[in-house]
Write a sequence for this structure.
């Protein structure tokens, strides 16, 4: 339960019954009508000393206890509500003045909002910076308990609003790699000037840049990570591989998965990559250029084709012949429905043993389909992208309270990418 919702719960479930019980006590003690009894009770909550109650003259112990409880609790509840209103109105700033050791997230897109939800679920205090007041994720994050600052995260004044010099962790998840690094650098400089230690975690989309930054920033409190790489590695460790792997969709996730498989299995597997936007020769050249380990001996085939095309699976890849080696298919495009449809098309192919389907949200129908499958049909495996994406998330030096941020919710909203800066 978020702090905001807990206050609503107190007002609805506690304050209401107190007023009712107090009104009954006042009505029975003074003998006024119900309207006046309610009025006298509310006066106590307005910090208005009411000597007409003459509590010391009450004989009935039940009424005596109720009136004293009412007089003692009334000012406390009213004062607490007054402070809460001040906090809500931002009198002490967007972030409450007493916050410290909290998480600051820059960019409330798909990645950032999932981290925020994960931290809130674990009772952490979270401040969010986003430059777009119309970002649809922000209202949900506010309701969940996050404090939201609208502004440019690359400016020190905006970072100061989140009390960055008292935070424990900064996470930058905007779509701009350079911006993420600039924000982290600025925040660390601000905290160093204040003699405060801050761990900064930057999401970097470019895998080659991420690899080089990880080496260059080892001596600093800035860490680079890539969610697609982490997800692909988590998925790859759970694959049941035999002879051949077909990767359908060669985006960031598909490339990361391919890289991990080649690094760990090498030439022991045969690899096929299918993507409707792929230029095979260019893809091969880029792969050989970017892959740091020798990969010329690895058997990799790149195909450009519509993944729903029968020509692709029946002839180009040839999954109909039982003598073809056992094949695991990973369908990982950005289209959930397309992935599911492709998997169902392939499940009766003799050469396919397992089909792994990348999805943004769980599909309960898959369990029923799996239960009704015949022994000859391929096994279907659901890969819920946000639960797998940060399954292996770990940053050396991160405070223990934030070490489990990568254990993501799988029911959270999936929104657009969002920037924390202008």
């Amino acid at each position: 339960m978020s702090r905001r919702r807990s206050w609503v719960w107190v007002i609805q479930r506690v304050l209401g019954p107190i007023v009712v019980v107090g009104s009954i006590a006042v009505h029975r003690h003074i003998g006024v009508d119900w309207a006046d009894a309610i009025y006298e009770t509310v006066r106590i909550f307005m910090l208005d000393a009411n000597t007409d109650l003459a509590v010391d003259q009450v004989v009935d112990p039940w009424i005596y206890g109720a009136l004293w409880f009412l007089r003692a609790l009334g000012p406390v509840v009213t004062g607490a509500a007054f402070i809460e209103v001040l906090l809500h109105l931002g009198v002490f700033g967007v972030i409450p003045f007493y916050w410290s050791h909290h998480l600051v997230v820059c960019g409330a897109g798909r990645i950032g909002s999932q981290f925020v939800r994960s931290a809130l679920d674990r009772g952490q205090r979270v401040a969010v910076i986003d430059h777009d007041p119309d970002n649809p994720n922000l209202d949900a994050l506010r309701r969940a308990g996050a404090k939201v600052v609208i502004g440019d995260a690359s400016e020190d004044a905006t970072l100061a609003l989140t009390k960055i010099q008292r935070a424990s962790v900064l996470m930058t998840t905007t779509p701009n790699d350079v911006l993420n690094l600039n924000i982290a650098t600025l925040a660390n400089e601000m905290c160093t000037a204040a003699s405060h230690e801050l761990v900064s975690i930057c999401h970097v989309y470019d895998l080659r840049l991420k690899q080089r930054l990880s080496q260059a920033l080892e001596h600093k409190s800035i860490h680079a990570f890539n969610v697609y790489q982490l997800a692909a590695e988590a998925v790859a460790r759970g694959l049941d591989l035999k002879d051949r792997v077909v990767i359908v969709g060669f985006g960031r996730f598909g490339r990361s998965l391919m890289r991990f498989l080649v690094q760990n299995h090498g030439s022991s597997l045969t690899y096929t990559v299918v993507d409707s936007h792929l230029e095979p020769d260019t893809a091969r050249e880029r792969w050989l250029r970017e892959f740091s380990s020798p990969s010329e001996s690895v058997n990799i085939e790149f195909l450009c084709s519509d993944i729903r095309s029968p020509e692709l699976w029946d002839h180009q890849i040839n999954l109909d012949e039982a003598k073809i080696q056992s094949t695991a298919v990973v369908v990982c495009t950005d289209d959930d429905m397309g992935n599911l449809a492709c998997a169902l098309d392939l499940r009766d192919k003799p050469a396919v043993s397992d089909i792994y389907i990348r999805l943004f949200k769980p599909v309960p129908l898959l369990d029923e389909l799996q239960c009704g499958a015949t022994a000859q049909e391929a096994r279907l495996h659901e890969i819920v992208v946000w639960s797998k994406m940060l399954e292996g998330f770990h940053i050396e030096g991160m405070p223990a309270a934030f070490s489990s941020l990568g254990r993501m919710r799988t029911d959270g909203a999936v929104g657009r990418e969002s920037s924390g800066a202008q």
